[in-house]
Structures are given as C-alpha cells and as structure tokens.
Amino acid sequence: MWKNKKKSTTFSVNKEDYKLKEEVGHGASATVYRAIYLPLDKIVAVKCLDLDRCNSNLDDVRREAQTMSLINHPNLISAHCSFVVEHYLWVVMPFMAEGSCLHLMKIAYPEGFDEHIICSILKETLKALVYLHSHGHIHRDVKSGNILLDRGGIVKLCDFGVSACMFDKGDRQRSRNTFVGTPCWMAPEVLQPGGGYDFKADIWSFGITALELAHGHAPFSKYPPMKVLLMTIQNAPPELDYDRDKKFSKSFKEIVSMCLVKDQTKRPTAEKLLKHPFFKGAKSPENTVKNLLAGLAPLWDRVKQLQLKDAAQLALRKMPSAAEEALSQSEYKRGVSAWNFDIEDMKRQASLIQEDEEFSEVKEDKMDPSIFKLETGKSVLKKSDDNRFDIGNQPKTDKYKQDARKAPNFSGPLMLSNRASANSLSAPTVPVKSLGGNRDMLRNDFLKSKVQIKGRFSVTSENVDIVKDIPICTGSTAPISSSQFINEIGSSRLPTSILVPHLQNLYQQTSFQHDLIDNLLNSLHQTDQSDDMFLAMSSLAVNPKNDLLFEPAASEREQLLLMKISDMQTRVSRLTDELTTAKIKHAQLVQEISNANREREDRKRIEESGES
Ligand SMILES: Nc1ncnc2c1ncn2[C@@H]1O[C@H](COP(=O)(O)OP(=O)(O)OP(=O)(O)O)[C@@H](O)[C@H]1O
After folding, report:
1. How many angstroms separate the alpha carbon of residue 299 from the centre of ligand 1?
2. What does the entry list as the binding residues for ATP (predicted)?
C-alpha cells in the first residue's frame, strides 16, 4: 500500500472511499474503471489488477506500482495511490476521459490519423520516453493502446506493467534477456533469447506505433504470433510505403525508418529523435487531438460499443475461410509444436499464408543468422486473443501448474520467462519446438518445454473452468468473481449492461474451444490416414507388452511420435469433455441473453408508453 506524497491532494487507501463506475478498458491482467473518489467527489481511474490472474509475479506488480509512484512527467500517467482489495491490487490514477489512441482509432478512425495529429501524439510520447530512459527505465510496451488521451487533447503514456530498470543488477538484469512486450510491437532483439536488449527496444516499438497510428493497425497484426515472430526476424523492417502512403511526408517516413532498424545500435535515442525536423513543426495536441474527439460518445459507451462490435464479429464467424484457417493451423503446428525444425521449411510454410496488402509493407530480407539464437532457445510461446504471446523458459513445476491461468485473457504483454505463467486461458501440455540442430538437445528441449496457447489456437488444460475468475464490476462494489457471477445470474440480480459483455466473452471462449477440438480431431484424422507409422505407434501405445516396443530400431523420432500421439489422445478426450460442458454452458447463456434482451425490450416499451 502506498500514497503519492508528491501530490497536493491525498487519496485514501480505503476501498469504501471509491465508487467504481463503468469499465473503461481492460488489458492482460487488469480491468480499468472510471470511479468517484467520494471524499472529494473527484473522478479518477481505478485499475484493478487481479493478483491471481496477473501475468506478473508480485515483484513485477510492486515494481509497476513503485514506478508509477515515482513518475513525475506531464506525459506519463502517475498513480495517486495503490492498495490491495481481496486478491486485487487497486491502482488509483487520474482518469483519462478519452481513453487510448487504439480505442479512438477502432471507434472512429479505422484508417488511422492524419499526419499532423500523429506528429503531435508521437512527440508527446517521445517526451515521455526521453524522461523514462533518462531515469533508467525501459517501458517495454509502447503501443497505441497505452497512449491515453484526456479531454482537451492531453497525451500520456501508461502501463508500466512490464517496464524494466536498466540499472538493475542480478535477477532483474537477467530478466531483460527474456521476452516482454506485445508481439507486433516487439523489436527483433527482444524476440531472440540470450541477446539482451536495452532502451532501444522502446524505439522500435515507437516506430511500430507510428505505423499503427498511420494505418489504424500495427504491421502484421492479423497474423498468428509465430508468423509475426518470423516476419519480424527474417523480413526487412516494415516501413511507410512510397506508393501506398503517398499522403505522408518524407520526414515522417524518415523517422519511421530510423526507428525500425534491426541493428539496435543504429537506432536513435529518444532524445535524438525528438530533435528530428519532423517534430520541430509539431502542433500542440490541444490544437490537433482535441478536434478528433468532437461529437464522440462518452468513453464508457464507446468501450461498450466496441465490445458489442467484437462480439457481433465473432457471432458472424468473421474468421478466415476454412482453407485459410486450416493453413494457419498447420503453420502453427509446424511453428510451435512440431519437431522438424528446418528453418527453410518453416520459411516455406510461413510463405504459404496469402500475401496481401500488409505484406507489401515489408520486403524479403536475407535470412538473419541471428535466428539460430532463437532456434536453440528453449522457448515457450503463449498467444492471446489480440495476438500477444509469451515466450520463455517455463518452469515445469507443480507450482507452475497451479499458477497456470484459468481465466480468459483478452490482451496481455509477453511475460518474463521466469514469471509464473499466470494469465493463460489454457495450460496445455503441447510440446514446444526446439529449433536447434542438435538432436539430443532437441529432444531434451522437447521434453522440458511446454507451450501455452490462447486465442484462435487455444488449448484448455485439465479441469479448467473458463468462466472462473473473470472480474466483473457491479458498479458500486469491488469486481466480483465469475463464480459469484454465475450465482448472480441465477438470481437475476445483475443488470444487462454487465451481463451482456460477460456473456459475449463466454460465447467467444466456447467458440474457440469448439474450433480447437475440430482442428485437433482433423489433425489426428489426417495423421491417421497418411502416416502408416501412426497405426503401429497406436498399437504400441495401446499394448505396452507388444514386442515391437523392445525393438532396438525405435529411433528418437519414433519415440517422440509415440509420445505425441498419446499426448494428443489424452488431450482429445479431455477436450471432448470440456466441449460438452461448454456446450451446456453455452445453451444456458444463450437462454440468459435472450431473457436479458426480452427484459430490456419490455423495459423500453414501458418507458416509451410512459413517455407517450
Ligand atoms: N487512467 C486511465 N484512464 C482511462 N482509461 C484508462 C486509464 N488507464 C488505462 N485505461 C484503459 O484501460 C486499458 C488497459 O489498461 P492497462 O494498459 O494499464 O492495463 P494492462 O492490463 O496493464 O494492459 P496491457 O494488456 O497493455 O498490459 C488501456 O488500454 C486504456 O484503454
């Protein structure tokens, strides 16, 4: 628990003094609410970090709170105070009434902003980075979702959940050799374990953010994480295209190229970048950003609108076609869980994905020799719904299994490899690839490593209750857990505004599970038909007394296949059980949604008849 003593206004660390209102955003480990600080009747934002489901270990959480408390810069969100409420850490901070740039683009500027607006936003962000870097901090998660806007156009960078101190020694320093960030925004050196990285990683993310603000999305944002990873490492850096991006100035194109240089030592510092002529002519955001906000609904309504839009897209199955999905799935299997790690083969597989306009942003580069660092790394990759994922050496302990995330995650940073992997929808035991050439090492890595996958490729772990522990805000009290929520549903005490987004989340998770099971069954079926060895292996697996088992000719590869088959069989039966449970839940939830809709219509009718 701490208070920011720098501020003239002090905020209490008593939860009763805060009335949580609408949800205004959520991330990997936290939900953010607009709230009223009752003693002063002041609007604040309260970030409720679920300590149980949080990606970070307690040290990381403490570090975020400490970093936030020490921050004193007009372009950085500083916290008023923080304290623990049950298993949540509440961080009280100024409310940024217009939300993040990402929200704004999604709701009103899907093609991105005009250059003069981007210039203002980037300049303010850069000032924040100059401050952070000069105080020894790497932000590690610079992106439009973490650039917040206030009424009047004030721009502030937020979310120090993954920031690191460059002056740290020992464990903390070592942790910088692991992966933290969000895949599309991650610098190539961050993706390569062992190499280490420094504040220049923020400059890369800043360059990607510039492209994001220019196009409305980050480069590669629609590809699966493994593809993003490969493209970041293998391809030439993304850039503003000469033809397609005609509307942008040479100067803007130049700063993007300066930031997106693979060799981190050749990237400019934030301080140097700020002196670039592009930023010389920047208008104050009060004059530019402010105009973007005219006529928009309040932030919480926009957030709700976005949630409904996402749910509607899901309902329409706005997914890739079946063929693309299968292709993507096979790429994923090769990329993450296969053991034949011929890099040329991986490149060929990756290239099978349809080229589209986004690919024109990058040119094929020569194979980067540094990729072999990645190949030999024992990596754990974890993808979430917004294409984020975690890579690192995953501790294979019971503690880890207990800590495995059981609640859905709708976004989230790449986690430190040495953190408890606490934010996964699923904790499957899919063997992760080791890309190295050495067979022994390969096999050891294969056995040691585990992969956690979420989103389109989600695999759920044993007995995972997908609706458990999703925090929900009831408006006046602390967020409630989903088990409470289910009870509340039963007694119909929850208002529709809370019920509907939650039900949409559940619906989404159920669909993901359904897809996954289909994919697993298909892949088993294909293996069954195409690989004679499968039958032999299956019989070996079924009949442990089979003499064949003792044949000395069984190669390592066969053993690995055998293990994979039995692993898949276990998973399929587990997932089938989960699917049945999920189907039942789904049916109940559909019923609840229709009841809620009916109620809402009834209410509307009564209100209308009252008015007339
Ligand atoms: N002070 C604030 N005022 C208004 N909205 C905010 C504020 N802080 C955060 N938000 C909203 O909540 C979202 C999530 O916040 P934040 O990024 O801090 O959470 P997180 O769990 O750490 O996210 P991430 O997934 O990026 O790690 C932001 O993208 C933003 O839209």
Report:
1. 13
2. 47
Is it the case that residue 280 has pLDDT exceeding 80? yes
Nearest CA to ligand 1 atom 4: 96
**Domain ends where: 261, 296, 331?**
296
Mean pLDDT over the full length of the chain: 66
- Please indicate if the annotation marks 47 as binding a ligand: yes
Question: Of these residues, 50, 141, 150, 386, which one is catalytic?
Answer: 141
- Residue 340 within any structural domain of the chain: no
Closest protein CA for atom 13 of ligand 1: 25
The answer on 39 and 65 residing in a single domain is yes
Predicted confidence band at 183 (pLDDT cuts at 50, 70, 90)?
confident
Q: Is 141 a catalytic residue?
A: yes
Please indicate, yes or no, whether residues 89 and 103 belong to a single structural domain of this protein. no
DSSP-assigned states of every residue in 26-67: E-SSEEEEEEEEGGGTEEEEEEEEETTT-SS-HHHHHHHHHH
The pTM for the full model equals 0.57
Residue 494 domain-assigned? no
| Structure confidence at residue 365 as a pLDDT band (50, 70, 90) | very low
Q: For residue 30, how far is its CA from the centre of ligand 1 (angstroms)?
A: 8
Angstrom distance (rounded) from CA 208 to CA 327: 27
Q: By residue range, what is the domain housing residue 155?
A: 96-166+180-296
Name the token pair of 494.
Answer: 């929850």
Nearest protein Cα to ligand 1, atom 11: 25
Answer yes or no: is the C-beta of 161 below 6 A from any ligand 1 atom.
yes
Ligand 1 centroid – CA 33 distance (Å): 9
State how beta strands 164-165 and 382-383 pair.
unpaired
With contact defined as beta carbons under 8 Å apart, do 32 and 24 qualify? yes
State whether the beta carbon of 80 lies less than 6 angstroms from ligand 1: no
